[in-house]
Structures are given as C-alpha cells and as structure tokens.
Amino acid sequence: MISHHKEELFCDYYEKWIITYKEGAIREVTLKKYRITLYWLRTLIPTLRVCDMTRTAYQQLLNAFAQSHERQTTMDFHHQLKAAILDAVDDGYIDRDPTRKAIIKGKTPRPKKIKYLNQFELHTLLSSLNLQDSLNWDWLILLIAKTGIRFSEALGITPEDFDFSHQTLHINKTWDYKESTGFQPTKNASSVRKVQLDWYTIMQFSELIKGLPADKPIFVHGRVFNSTVNDILARHCKQLNLPIISIHGLRHTHASLLLFAGVSIASVARRLGHASINTTQKTYLHIIQELENRDIDIVMRSLSSLT
C-alpha cells in the first residue's frame, strides 16, 4: 500500500491532505491559502512524485517560489507545506524530513508605510460625515474611527452588543461579507473583547438602534462589499483634500492616535484584539520609532537638568 502512495504525484497527495485534515476544520479564508499553495505546487512541481521529495527538491521548490514572492509569503508557503510533508514522513511515504534546515529566501519587501490620518485630518473627516437619523455607512466610518475595530467586526455588531451602562461595545463575532455565510467567529480568541466608547458616541448609538431586532446586524442589509464603504470613505477624503485611506486605514488611524497620545502598546494591542503585542509592534513600527525619538529627547533633557 505504502509504495503506491510513494509513487503518487506530490500535488495530488497535498490536495488529498487538505481535504482530509483541513476542510471543515479551519476558516474558509485560511483554507483558501492552502488552495493557493496547491495551485503553486501544480505550477512549480507538476510531475514530482512523493518519493522524490528530497531536501534538494524541497529547497529548489522554495527557491522557485521565492523568486516571485516576499520572504514572509515564502515562509507561510513553507509552513503550509511542512505540516503535510511531516505527515507523509510519519506515514512512511517519504524517508527523511526534507524540510529540515530549509533556507527561506524571498524578494526584498517594498518599504510598507501604513496609511493613516493624523489627529487634525481625522477631526476634519469626522466633522464632515453625513450622520443621518438612521444608520448609514457614515455611521460605520465613525464607529471604526472611534474603536479601531475591523470591518468584519463592525458588520457583525448587533444591538445587544452595546452595553450602555458600562459604555462598552462587545466584539464577539464577525460578519462574513466575502462569502455571505452570515455570522462567523472572530479572527482569533484575543479578538473577543469589550471596547470602551466615549459617552457621546454611546448616546448617539442608543438612539440609532432603538427598536431594531436585538440579534440582527445593524449595518447589514443584503450583500455588503468592502469596496462600497472604501469608495464612500475615499470620496470624503478627496472632497476634504485629505490623504485617501481605506476602512482598514481607519483602524490604523485609531491605533496611531492612541500610541501618539502615550497609551501603552499592551493596551493598544488589547483594544485592537491583537493576539500578541508583537503584531502591534510590527504593524506600528515606524510610529513606535517616532515615539522613541521623542522619548530620547525627554531622557536627554531630564539628564541635562541634573548638572
């Protein structure tokens, strides 16, 4: 039986492995990434058999993938393959672990500067929003700017998620706007959180959601497209001569304002629902560097006053 599996094409083996171990066990978004990995296997090693997956063959595969991808993407590709290959080693289809000591290469990433608005620009944007008596997309823009929640989390909000006496918004689910399957779990366990809101915004929303069904999303009526809301936001930015940002850029804006105001990275990570502080540090590296420069000035001033 084993010898038959050894002769199988590696891409066919990988496809079966996805169906057996991943389908129904992970989110559709993550599953798509595995399918993209499968696509690359069919492109780069269409004829390689399971038994021919040696360390050299594996390294050549990674190198070929790395020619058109950044290092982080190549690292993800490696992780998605490694799990399946280790299973093949355990089952005796491959003799030795070919992923051992693999070298991860990749194109140099373009310097990524995240797009966000400064405090003045955000103030300009928010004061020009068309906030009607009933909920519209401008209300969603306001809510994300004030809370930093993800677009899918904002779409998942129902009236019962507001706790008016404690001025909090409970984030405990998302809305699947990509596949239209309704409510979905949050990105990870850390994303389940209570976000504090200022009393004025809480008061506004208590009026807006009066009489709405407690367990239905307040912003969703039919299909929702990310591009619809991004276009509305872009239009506002253009009219006001502001840098054009996306809805996700509002989340970055929220986080950067907190950091500049001196809120600790740990608190910002918690408010954004990041699984670890590392995510926050990596994402907001250039802002943190600016803050460090400011801190160095403070340190130097306080030291110089000691003479």
Please give a structural write-up.
By secondary structure, the protein is mainly alpha-helical. Helix content is 54%, strand content 5%. Strands 1-2-5 form a 3-stranded antiparallel β-sheet, with no helix packed on it. Strands 3-4 form a two-stranded antiparallel sheet. The relative contact order is 0.09.
Topology (elements, then pairings):
Elements: H1 2-7, H2 10-22, H3 28-44, H4 55-66, H5 71-90, H6 119-127, H7 137-147, H8 151-155, E1 162-163, E2 168-171, E3 174-176, E4 182-184, E5 193-196, H9 199-208, H10 226-239, H11 247-260, H12 265-272, H13 277-283, H14 285-304
Antiparallel strand pairs: 1-2, 2-5, 3-4
Helix pairs in contact: 2-3, 7-11, 12-13
List keywords for this structure.
5% strand, mainly alpha, 307 residues, 3-stranded antiparallel sheet
Concise summary:
By secondary structure, the chain is mainly α.
Structural class: mainly alpha
Number of strands: 5
Determine the mean pLDDT.
92
- The CA-CA distance between the termini, in Å, is 82 Å
**Weakly predicted, low-confidence segments:** none
* Strand fraction: 5-15%
Query: Radius of gyration over alpha carbons?
Result: 24 Å
Number of helices: 14
**Largest beta sheet: strand ordering:** 1-2-5
Largest sheet: 3 strands, antiparallel
Q: What fraction, in percent, of the residue positions are helical?
A: 40-55%
Global outline: globular
Order of helices and strands: HHHHHHHHEEEEEHHHHHH
